[in-house]
Design a protein that fits this description.
The protein has 23 helices and 16 strands. It is an alpha+beta fold.
């Protein structure tokens, strides 16, 4: 191989640093044989053009050199991770539907600070960050006022991500660890600033030692784990701009190691103190729920995309290290000389984070087992700068969400080098793929390789399977039991109004049976409950609108009286419920659920020949109120 071919292969991830250095210095015969042109099968492989030249376009990665690398490669191929739930709030976009429309249109979000915030620096800000629904989470208002608004915002967004995945009820309980512990969900998060503590410190004096918010970001994942009863790992990550991708890497490793059955990954940043605001700075929050792909398919989840592989590392500068334990002179020379030039590539561009970031990208490609030429989209800080600005810890969350949305919609949105949205052609020979990269201010780089999910030939979507799954010869039920619950009557009314708007609106809606099943199996049963037995979507819309207008009838179990006959303590109750369900006595099941009886909906569905299903539905309504230090709303 000549020098150009070696550098090309190094750029595309086919050679690692040691192999490339050995080939360029003439000491790599064995390495050359191991990374030779033979063995590649696919586009671009085979004979070169007439005239005896060869076309160096291998498509297979070199075989791993150690048992550990071979094991990692096999695990990556066999244990892919699915994104099954998402939620977020970004500047000018209160939900991911708005964020997608904004991305497709290519509209930026730079603006002056919202009313009530001091300063006039143009940036990318969220609205009403002082607002929080403490009652929904059962948190005392005084305690909530001391919580960092970043933490409050993450609580709401994380809950919405669980609901998007249909994973806040019995389906959440069913996520068990190896020892049978329920709710085995890990939480891996990051936060950008500690501004709220700085604001609070201004009011503290020796004469008036007021309570201050907690320091550190450890409570961001821990509080959500505690409130939702989650039992998996719960940890905060801080590698600056790359934090969310590093958190995702740790979450994927925990899933593959069996430390949790699902994992929530997210990040948040708010600019509350004047010292944090600078022109172009940004805010936002995002969360994604991950599961092993095999488990997600077995559970009937909606798979937004698949995580093929990821890698993290520090982008140490080329040349000899400055501190103790410096690299050997030979390694430093090879890195700074022969190999460093490869990162500029044939097009002369540098990889942004230098050789170190390119090294991490190549590692992610190897972990994913794909060729760089098959990855058509790259998202990074530059891609999302117009939408979230310099958003610190949440930058990678925005880039990751944007990539997932493009894969799921099969549309490429405007970005560097692409002035307008366009259809993402391809997917016939192999799935569409995207990479997401981030480089932290301290040098910590991370890359993730995403892939669209293509169901196996003949496989149905979760919604289609849900609508069709029933024993042969059994007629589709003449009616469906629709259930909805919330922590208070006001929350219940607001959520009912939200569902009525969806079902009566112009957009596509799930089939009634799928909608009803997703709510029964995928939403938590709270104290205030509404239930209706309906024959079609129009009847359900009418029932929801009557309830939203008149406020009844519904069950309110907050004052006690839950399950007055104590049927939940009787083992025969499960068989009784199953018999009622099989016979179609939905009104009786409705009455028992409204009385506070704990119903295992997934077991009832299985008894009828179906299972749980998750389809995207409106999130529960939050009723936010201003909560701030000392009631000083203007500080928000």
């Amino acid at each position: 191989m000549d020098e150009k071919e070696v550098l090309t292969r190094f750029k595309n991830g086919h050679l690692d640093r040691v192999q490339a250095a050995a080939l360029l210095t003439g000491s790599g015969a064995a390495t050359a044989a191991r990374a030779g042109t033979g063995g590649g099968a696919g586009p671009g492989a085979g004979a070169g053009p007439a005239g005896g030249g060869t076309v160096p376009v291998p498509v297979a990665f070199p075989r791993p050199d150690t048992p550990r690398e071979r094991t990692a490669e096999r695990a990556s191929a066999a244990e892919r991770i699915a994104v099954v739930g998402m939620a977020g709030r970004y500047p000018g976009a209160g939900d991911l539907g708005s964020f997608w429309r904004q991305a497709r249109a290519g509209h930026g979000s730079a603006a002056a600070p919202p009313a009530g915030r001091p300063g006039d620096e143009r940036g990318h800000y969220l609205e009403r960050v002082q607002d929080f629904d403490a009652e929904f989470f059962g948190i005392d208002a005084a305690e909530a006022a001391l919580m960092d608004p970043q933490e409050r915002l993450f609580l709401e967004t994380a809950w919405e991500a669980l609901e998007d995945a249909g994973c806040t009820g019995g389906r959440l309980d069913a996520l068990t660890s190896a020892d049978g512990t329920p709710r085995s969900v890990g939480v891996f998060t990051c936060a950008g600033t500690a501004d709220y503590a700085l604001l609070a410190a201004r009011s503290w004096t020796r004469e008036r030692p007021v309570r201050l918010p907690r320091g550190g970001h450890w409570s961001l994942p821990n509080r959500f784990s505690a409130l939702a009863g989650l039992t998996g790992p719960s940890q905060s990550v801080d590698t600056a701009e790359s934090s969310v991708l590093v958190a995702l890497h740790l979450a994927a490793a925990a899933l593959r190691a069996g430390e949790c059955a699902a994992a929530l990954v997210g990040g948040v940043q708010l600019l509350l103190h004047p010292s944090s605001r600078r022109p172009g700075a940004g805010e936002g929050v995002g969360a994604l729920l991950l599961k092993p792909l095999a488990r997600a398919l077995a559970d009937g989840d909606t798979v937004h995309c698949v995580i093929r592989g990821s890698a993290v590392g520090h982008s140490a500068a080329g040349g000899p290290a400055a501190g103790p334990g410096r690299w050997s002179r030979a390694v430093a020379g090879a890195d700074a000389g022969a190999v460093a030039g490869a990162d500029a590539g044939a097009d002369g561009r540098d990889g942004g984070g230098g050789d170190g970031e390119q090294r991490v990208l190549r590692a992610a490609l190897r972990a994913a087992g794909v060729d760089a030429s098959t990855v058509a989209l790259h998202e990074d800080a530059d891609s999302v700068r117009a939408f979230v600005g310099e958003a610190g810890a949440v930058t990678a969350a925005a880039a990751l969400t944007r990539a997932v949305l493009q894969l799921s919609h099969r549309v490429l949105v405007p970005g560097p080098g692409r002035p307008e949205a366009q259809a993402w052609h391809g997917g016939e020979q192999e799935p569409r793929r995207a990479s997401v990269g981030a480089h932290g201010a301290g040098g910590s780089a991370a890359h993730v390789i995403l892939e669209e999910y293509l169901p196996a030939e003949g496989a149905e979507s979760a919604a289609g399977a849900a609508g069709a799954a029933r024993p042969a010869g059994e007629a589709r039920p003449a009616a469906e039991l629709f259930v909805l619950s919330a922590p208070t009557p006001a929350h219940l009314t607001a959520t009912a109004r939200r569902f009525a708007g969806l079902l009566a609106g112009p957009g596509p809606v799930p089939e009634l049976g799928v909608l009803a099943r997703a709510l029964r199996t995928g939403r938590a049963a709270m104290d205030c409950r509404f239930a209706a037995v309906v024959g079609d979507t129009g009847e359900l819309v009418a029932a929801l609108e009557r309830f939203a207008a008149d406020g009844g009838p519904y069950a309110d179990l907050r004052g006690g009286g839950c399950d007055p006959l104590d049927m939940g303590a009787v083992p025969e109750t499960a068989d009784y419920l199953a018999a009622l369900w099989r016979a179609g006595h939905l009104q009786q099941v409705r009455s028992l659920w409204l009385s506070g009886l704990d119903v295992d909906w997934a077991a009832l569905e299985q008894a009828r020949g179906a299972g749980a299903v998750a389809v995207p539905l409106p999130a529960s309504a939050f009723l936010r109120t201003p909560l701030w230090l000392g009631g000083e709303e203007e500080r928000a």
